[in-house]
Amino acid sequence: MINKSIEESIVLSIFDLANQLKKIGDDVYLKVGLTTQQWLILLHLSGNPNLPFFKREKHVKDLMASELAESLNVSRANITNLINVLLEKKLIKQFEDGQDRRKKRLRLTKKGIALIDKTQPSRLGVIHFLTEGFSTEQKQTFLTFLEECMSKLINEDDKIKSFHKLI
Amino acid sequence: MINKSIEESIVLSIFDLANQLKKIGDDVYLKVGLTTQQWLILLHLSGNPNLPFFKREKHVKDLMASELAESLNVSRANITNLINVLLEKKLIKQFEDGQDRRKKRLRLTKKGIALIDKTQPSRLGVIHFLTEGFSTEQKQTFLTFLEECMSKLINEDDKIKSFHKLI
DNA sequence: TTAAATAGTTAATAATGTTAACTATTTTTA
DNA sequence: TAAAAATAGTTAACATTATTAACTATTTAA
Fold first, then answer.
1. Of A4, A10, B49, B102, which has the highest C-beta tally within 10 A?
2. Strand D within 7 A of A75 CB
3. Nucleotide nearest to B84 (CA to C1')
4. Which one of B1, B4, B6, B7 makes the best mutation probe of the A interface by having the most chain A beta carbons within 10 Å?
């Protein structure tokens, strides 16, 4: 018999909620001819300060494909494909780094910026609808909780893996 | 210029965290020859009371494929495929419903139960490691937050869709 | 100056998912 | 009660998203 547990409920709910949000995203971004993943790349290139990636480390230069791979937690090869789609759609542009000839920097085109601007009100509308009814303190507690979990997952990889040795 | 916002940070963090957790799950369940999706079906069939699906509605009978599709938010066709894999591995069994001949009920085999039992300590270990350091009140507030968001997404579909008309 | 690391790409492939069309059965409704 | 609609599951064809491995080019470190 499996017991009720707040902790397990939280983790399973996070999973469920992210899943639902992704579905909604897929629906919305389909309207502008994008997938959620493609749109997420645009959001990164827009420099959105609310992305966990930008909270973990500051970025002054335009992003590279490998940084997107790190943030989205997928392979570089996968990012290459996604970027090719966005380049074809002329939503982003790619240019060589002046200092390091291995690197290619990515930037939104005017068309890309316009698209981000267009989808912003709808996105923020949903976000505020979902989070309304909670105090700023409560919201800050949730955010801290999420960020601490994330930090443990990233920085205490060894500890996480030690649990898996039980299997 | 995009502003910092707790609300947007929360939503983007939930996305990020779920993504990381899924990657970890993929790693772990690979060890026992499963994908995260396949394992999630086993978790449903184990009747785990911490699954959001079981909190939303009570289930006395064994689950059907269509109910799994609803809970995982995927098509029935997709569930058919996943179930076939689990049937081949002899982790679950399928039997006809006595009352309604359209329905097929699913249940864990002894092998399936053994596998769930085997992975449980590792899974709970990670979950407790991630959530330690927060008070029960904080954790309860956080769970309530997640459940309210979920409930809005499910029950106020029209409202959510109205935001998308802005695009 | 050689070896290792980093950045990106390509090719082959796996998994995960979709929709549409179909059968069988049950429920609704006219 | 007969016809229509809904539900459950499957199959086939296909799209997307992802992976790894092998490769080139370049930079950094030993």
1. A10
2. yes
3. D10
4. B7
pLDDT tens digits along B68-78? 999 999 999 99
Nearest to B131 by CA among A51, A18, A166, A12: A12
DSSP, residue by residue, B50-108: TSHHHHHS---SPPBHHHHHHHHT--HHHHHHHHHHHHHTTSEEEEE-SS-TT-EEEEE
Can you tell me the distance from the alpha carbon of A84 to that of A75, in angstroms, rounded to the nearest whole number? Answer: 15
pLDDT tens for each residue of B89-138: 999 999 999 999 999 999 999 999 999 999 999 899 999 999 999 999 99
Beta-strand pair A92-96/A104-108: antiparallel
Cα(B13)–Cα(A20) distance, rounded to whole angstroms?
A: 14
Strand (E) or helix (H) holding B131: helix B110-131
Mean pLDDT of B12-35: 90
Given an 8 Å threshold on Cβ–Cβ distance, is B13 in contact with A46? no
SS3 B165: coil
Q: Does A30 touch chain B (CB under 8 A)?
A: no
Backbone angles phi, psi at A78, to 5 degrees: -65, -40
**Strand bridging mode B92-96 / B104-108:** antiparallel
Give the count of alpha carbons within 13 A of A69, CB side only.
12
Nucleotides of C under 7 A from a protein CB: 6-12, 15-21, 24-27
- Listed in sequence order, the residues at least 6 apart from B122 whose beta carbon sits closer than 8 Å to its beta carbon are A163, A164, A166, A167, B28
Cβ atoms of A115 and B152 closer than 8 Å: no
